[in-house]
Amino acid sequence: MTQELDLSRSRLTTPRAASIAGILFSLLYMAVIILIRSAVPEKPEELGDWLSTGWKTVTLALNLLPFAGIAFLWFIGVVRDRLGEHEDRFFATVFLGSGLLFLAMLFASAALAGGILTMYGANPELLIQSGIYTFGRMVTYGLMNVYTLKMAGVFMMSLSTLTLRTGIAPRWMAILGFVSAIFLILSLGLITWAPIVFPLYVLMISIYILVANYRRR
Question: Is the C-alpha dihedral spanning 76, 81, 86, 88 positive or negative?
Fold first, then answer.
């Protein structure tokens, strides 16, 4: 009897803790976006003059990013837990796959940017003259502003579809998710602050799940 009670308590508290992690991801990822956008020029063709003044800001953003990624994994976990037996295998696979791809490309671009900053600290002139900076900047820009955003859009679209099919969140949240997903997919990195739409959507879903779990308790 005691064991069953402990399992019941664990099942109730885990979603609440994970939804807090979703809020944490949203806040950390928005902070990362703001820090990077404020320090790095919008155009990837820029020659690297920002490195002398903005490298500390970007370094701070890159140090926050792994914690945001860990929190995002917890958010995926709480959504799947909330779906429970109603989870649709097809859309759940797209949901999980797009979320993991989003994280993988996000971490890959962060590692590449970190390597550029490390090389800049060791030999600034070699970094610029060798063309390594230009190559790294282009690749990072493509990963962050094109492919990562597309995966974020697919993630939002699959989550919105699951929301409509299972009713784990209000219908208007699902519709808003579809609109936001289409916006991210079609933005193609042309709109500077487009990436901030994704953490705002995760924040909205996380707050709703957190409130719903408190009401259930």
Answer: positive
